[in-house]
Specification:
This protein is of the alpha/beta class and 255 residues long. Helices cover 42% and strands 16% of the residues. Helix 8 crosses helix 10. The C terminus is likely disordered.
Length: 255
């Protein structure tokens, strides 16, 4: 059975993928998990690497390209280092077709499976129709080879009609996909937090430049998200935060 998780944040542009990735790194850091973190993208300088602030918490953030060479390096590393608990990678929205080509060329999910990793796609959505079309393209290509978490980003409001009233939602449910809420946070507070170039958990300390009220709001926003994740019956398994008995190897079972 699958023991570990390969978590990929996917979705249309500007829906909160990197925000979700950073919140997940906060959770993984709390649980003292051994995580390999990657980012995709080819923008100038370090603009593609929106996770770089988390090097301050000891994470090594590396670039992962959609080519056989990078795939071989990654798979060899996962095979050599059994102490790795999970992998997280942040994928820009415009890379979807490259990702499909990459999968067809190197059988990436099949190779992950052979190493004991089960992929999870965590897909934030806004209230735009394009988000739903993106999600549909994703599950039509990968089917049940992966698990799905759809994140309703409440920055865009409380209603997601193009998703809630669409067969896409039923199809995700049939694939055992689940939904997660990312709570609303005000624009100016979020921008203050981003401008610190600090991990979220450091941005809310008294050492940061953010005013006290904004630090308090940000802290509660983070805690709300963490509580929603950890209190769900399935999401911690999909994100590699917990493993149930069915996912453990025989030698790991204890009676």
């Amino acid at each position: 059975m699958f023991r570990k998780r390969f978590v990929i944040t996917v979705g249309d542009s500007r829906v909160g993928k990197s925000t979700i990735s950073r919140l997940l790194l906060e959770l993984y850091n709390r649980h003292e998990l051994n995580v390999r973190a990657y980012y995709h993208g080819q923008r100038p300088g370090d603009l593609s690497n929106k996770l770089s602030a988390y090097e301050q918490l000891g994470f090594s953030i590396k670039h992962l390209g959609f080519n056989r060479g990078d795939s071989d390096i990654l798979l060899n590393e996962l095979e050599m280092f059994s102490e790795i608990d999970l992998v997280l990678t942040d994928m820009p929205g415009q890379n979807l077709l490259d990702f499909f080509r990459f999968e067809n060329e190197v059988y990436f999910t099949e190779n992950l499976e052979s190493l004991g990793y089960r992929p999870t796609f965590i897909h934030p959505i806004s209230n735009r129709r394009d988000c739903v079309k993106y999600l549909q393209s994703l599950y039509e290509f990968f089917g049940n080879r992966v698990d799905y978490i759809v994140v309703k980003n409440q920055y865009f409001g409380d209603y997601f009609d193009f998703y809630d009233n669409n067969e896409v939602r039923q199809n995700i449910e049939s694939l055992k996909g689940v939904e997660l809420i990312l709570p609303y946070i005000e624009d100016n507070i979020y921008q203050d937090m981003e401008d610190t170039n600090l991990p979220y958990s450091l941005a809310v300390t008294s050492d940061s430049d953010i005013q006290l009220l904004h630090r308090s709001v940000t802290y509660n926003w983070m805690e709300n998200f963490c509580d929603v994740v950890m209190n769900h019956s399935v999401i911690p398994l999909y994100l590699g935060l917990k493993r149930d008995r069915a996912e453990l190897q025989p030698q790991e079972l204890r009676f």
